[in-house]
Write a structure and sequence with these properties.
By secondary structure, this protein is mainly α. The chain is built from 19 helices and two strands. It has a two-stranded antiparallel sheet with strand order 1-2. The radius of gyration is 21 Å and the shape is globular.
Length: about 450
């Protein structure tokens, strides 16, 4: 029997999982949520939900994958086999999170092409040459992202044509090369470099931004508590959504990475580290972006791509040392994007290996070609595509993973696999909190997302 690839070290696994969790949500959505809902007023419920989801859903998905040494299809099948002796129903349901991972990866492929282009332009100085002319900056983003976008009160462009095809291919090829090298030889090694560098770059940016006149207003805002705001249900809903989606519980990426984790590693400890460093990355992004916008005299009133590719470019180009800051920022964002897309494509790649016995390199090539073609075709509808996948399919995948592991496989199976490799067993609080609390929260993520047009 061919030996299954896997992570070679605890920190290799943790850094890869951090890489999967640290994505665009940390960079272009978390700061705007902190700004919109009042600094600490948003952060307090956010931290609470990170602890809750990290201590239930993240642990559960890691253990689910490791218990079966398989991705969602094999892992779900194992759960129904434990309960009924028949793995077929679980395997059929397991296709849903695979489709979610593939759909999100395709959308991310388009976004990664934007990031590659902006990183290149920041290094060559083209981005800095745009100055603070919002028309020119908006026009550049318009030439990059082929969809109709409003990027400010006075700037609205209709984007079309072939879009960003060259950068889409470049970003996809780089991602696929990392994956083709294997779990240990590609994904683990790449994240061991990219994640420490990403954190170092954000810390360096944070220190520089701290020295700029006017940045103090940004810090003051972040750490101001408005007690009355905690009575606003939307603060709690969006804080929950940010935590839920940031921790990448969707029944796919965390399950497949968990399946590569050695049996002698502690899953609760690994989940704790992933939750901590993912939150740290989000905080570092907020501590860079919000004070930078304050120093530039800009109002942080819009999130999404416009924040990172339009408003922030305007601020960076107007600040002392902005060219260097911009270059460092977009390189850091590039690492975040690469690590996330590699995780998303890994679930369908592993599926081809497990279900159809396709070798690693051909499996990566097949998924890459499919992903690249679809990504090229959806460029004009990236936002709508991502909404459908993230609002409906991802939380559904998280809910199904929770049900399969905590409800179908049952308490004995869950505790055996969660505790494997740990020095001491997890507390009695874990199973009921995960079975009832986490699964209910996954339903809330689905329903609230559908009702509000997305919460994460």
């Amino acid at each position: 029997m061919e030996k299954r690839d896997g992570f070679q070290s605890k920190w290799g696994f943790i850094l890869a999982c951090i890489g999967s969790a640290v994505g665009m949500g940390n960079i272009w959505r978390f700061p705007i949520m902190v700004s919109t809902y009042g600094g600490l007023t948003f952060l307090i419920p956010y931290f609470l939900f990170v602890v809750l989801i990290g201590a239930t859903g993240v642990i559960g998905e890691f253990a689910l994958g490791r218990s079966a040494s398989a991705g969602p299809i094999g892992a779900f099948g194992k759960c129904t086999e434990v309960r009924t002796g028949n793995k077929k129903p679980g395997e059929i349901i397991g296709w849903i999170p695979i489709l979610g991972a593939m759909g999100l990866a395709i959308g991310y492929t388009v976004v990664l092409s934007w990031i590659f282009k902006y990183a290149f332009m920041s290094i060559t100085g083209q981005l800095f040459n745009l100055g603070t002319d919002m028309g020119a900056i908006g026009g550049m983003f318009g030439a990059t992202a082929p969809e109709t976008a409003s990027i400010g009160e006075s700037v609205s462009v209709v984007l079309g044509g072939a879009g960003n095809a060259l950068w889409l291919v470049i970003g996809l090829v780089v991602s696929l090369v990392i994956m083709a090298l294997g779990v240990a030889g590609g994904i683990e090694k790449a994240n061991k470099i990219m994640m420490p560098v990403l954190f170092f770059l954000f810390v360096a940016l944070g220190i520089y931004i701290f020295t700029l006149p006017g940045s103090g207003e940004g810090y003051k805002y972040i750490f101001t508590l408005q007690p009355g705001g905690l009575a606003n249900p939307k603060v709690w809903i969006f804080a929950f959504g940010q935590a839920f989606f940031s921790l990448s519980v969707a029944g796919n990426g965390s399950v497949i990475y968990g399946s590569y984790l050695p049996k002698n590693e502690s899953i609760p400890s690994s989940a704790r580290n992933v939750a901590f460093f993912d939150t740290l990355a989000a905080m570092l992004a907020a501590l860079v972006i919000i004070p930078a916008m304050a120093a530039g005299g800009a109002e942080l009133s819009k999130g999404g791509p416009g924040l990172m590719f339009v408003y922030l470019v305007n601020v960076l180009n107007g600040m002392p040392g902005g060219r260097i800051v911009g270059m460092i920022f977009y390189i850091a964002v590039l690492f975040a994007g690469l690590s996330s897309i590699v995780n998303l494509y890994e679930a369908p790649v592993a599926m081809l290996q497990e279900r159809f016995k396709v070798k690693r390199v051909p499996a990566v090539a097949i998924i890459g070609v499919i992903g690249g073609i679809v990504a090229f075709l959806i460029q004009g509808y990236t936002s709508q595509w991502m909404d459908i996948v993230s609002i409906y399919i991802c939380p559904l995948g998280a809910f199904l993973a929770g049900v399969m592991f905590f409800w179908v496989a049952g308490k004995d199976y869950v505790l055996k696999n969660v505790n494997e490799g740990s020095a001491k067993p997890i507390g009695n609080w874990f199973y009921p909190l995960a079975k009832y609390g986490y699964c209910i929260l996954a339903i809330v993520a689905l329903v609230a997302g559908a009702a509000l047009g997305g919460i994460g």
